[in-house]
Amino acid sequence: MQGHSTDENTGLINGLQTWYDQQSSKHPETGFVLKASLLVFLIMTAKSFVEANDFFQVILLMFLLFMPLYFVIFCMHRWRSKNVGFFRNLYEFIRENVTIVSVPTVEHQEAFKNSAWVTYSLILVNEIIFYFVQPAFPKIFHHLAFIPWSHEWLDLTCALFSSMFLHIDDMHLWGNMMFLWGVGTVVERRIGWRLFIGGYLVSGMVASLLAVNIHYYLLGEEMHGIGASGAISGVMGMYMIRCYFKQMVFPIPFLGVLPISWKMRMNSMTFIGLFFALDLKEGYSQISGENFSMIAHWAHVGGMYAGMMIAATRRFEKDADLEFNEERGMSAIRNGTLSSAGFDKLIGLDAAEVSLRKVLASQPDNVSAMLQLARTRSHLVADREAKELYAGVIAKLVVSDTAEAMNVYLEYYKKYMDIVSPAVQYRLVPHFLKAGQYEIASRSLELIIAHDDTPPDIKEKAMYNCARVFDEMDLPEAANLMRINYLNLFPDSISSAKVRSALNLETND
């Protein structure tokens, strides 16, 4: 009976694993949602357990107190395991693991270079209102908090919008603005300024409406809310869907109080999910009378929910999947060499290839993905598909970025010792000559001449120019031989007279 039960449990686990793998393959966000939800549940359970037990609170306090010691131990271990100087190792370790920024931030934003000017403008506007407008109008909260104490119709109409630009003190302002900077710049760069500002304002208004109604109908009190946290929660909701695969850095202060913090990296869906769960928990405590905090937890919940709904309606997950697959595929091979970090993350090159093919299915002209797939396919064995991918990349780059086209061709040539196509290769030759790379230019011309599919007009030009390149390389015999072959193939060419003249001059000398 026991063996039979064990077999059933094993079958159930294997079935769940198979289902999870299938869902994660078809919908990458599914795996992140499941893992993030489980982790949020475990963290919230552990938090409740620690809060209810004094012994574990002491253990946690000791952990924070001894964190500088852990820092020294890890640093020494890294120094011994790496062949670098102590101070260089210390600098790199601090840069990777220590921060003075006291709010969560996002790693690896370099893929999107467009400016997040709306985010910066919102931060500036909030600062101007706090430091200049609020002091000039002492009764501004009376009229523009939501719900305003004045209860005037005009004030009530404006307050739904204006309340999200008012703050009670410096800590309230800068806490919100640092969060806005941390997530807003990432979201705006990906969805564009119009969707961003629209989502920000709508989330802020939804947040205020939900919080006001809950306080009025469930707590029997009138709420007078101010602050940008509801709108920023909406940005976090959009972030959770658009960047579900990203890692966020959560700062843990040394000794629990110092402004210098240890970087703890966590998946963004888990991190934002924790915020959502904590706000739900504290919001419920407010309703039940256990929590008398002045923090508008239900505004945070409403704003984040609004942001998630906006993201779901606009199908942000499609762009998220595309970026996820591109980032995952690009991490396997960097600068032509296998990345150990990428290899561990991808569990081999096969997963990188799958991700890159998904990107190309959506964006067939994505040159970066084509090139990375060519490198992935040819990393161990230079196969025919990779050769065709390289050829396609070079054909596109020769029109838009000749310098990169040259670099990619040199990479291709080391693997295949061949040209990409006669026409494209001939367009590369002048750029190699201009760069002073005469050997690769002459070799390209020779391969063009020998290629079976080279059109006669290109072959003629290639032979004529190849002779001239040999002259530049001080190879007169090779130049004359090329000219003789040229006359044998193209005796009536418009350039044949120049070729004969060059041969006669050489003979007379």
CATH architecture of the largest domain: Up-down Bundle
Helix share of residues?
A: over 70%
List the helices and strands in order. Answer: HHHHHEEHHHHHHEEHHHEEHHHHHHHHHH
What is the total number of structural domains?
3
Largest pleated sheet: 4 strands, antiparallel
Question: Strand order within the widest sheet?
Answer: 1-4-3-2
Explained architecture:
By secondary structure, the protein is mainly alpha-helical. The chain folds into three domains: 102-316, Rhomboid-like fold (Up-down Bundle), CATH 1.20.1540.10; 331-412, Serine Threonine Protein Phosphatase 5, Tetratricopeptide repeat; 419-509, Serine Threonine Protein Phosphatase 5, Tetratricopeptide repeat (Alpha Horseshoe), CATH 1.25.40.10. Helix content is 73%, strand content 4%. The chain is built from 24 helices and six strands. The protein has helices at residues 2-26, 28-51, 54-65, 67-81, 86-97, 117-136, 140-144, 153-162, 170-191, 193-217, 229-242, 268-288, 297-313, 316-330, 340-346, 349-362, 367-377, 384-400, 402-416, 422-434, 438-450, 456-472, 476-489, 496-508, and strands at 98-99, 105-106, 247-253, 261-267, 333-334, 337-338. The strands form two sheets. Strands 1-4-3-2 form a four-stranded antiparallel β-sheet. It has a two-stranded antiparallel ribbon with strand order 5-6. β3 and β4 form a beta hairpin. α2 crosses α12 (268-288), α10 packs across α11 (229-242) and α16 packs antiparallel against α17. The longest helix is centred in the N-terminal third of the chain and has 25 residues, at 2-26. The protein is elongated, with a radius of gyration of 32 Å. The model is unreliable at 340-347 (pLDDT under 50).
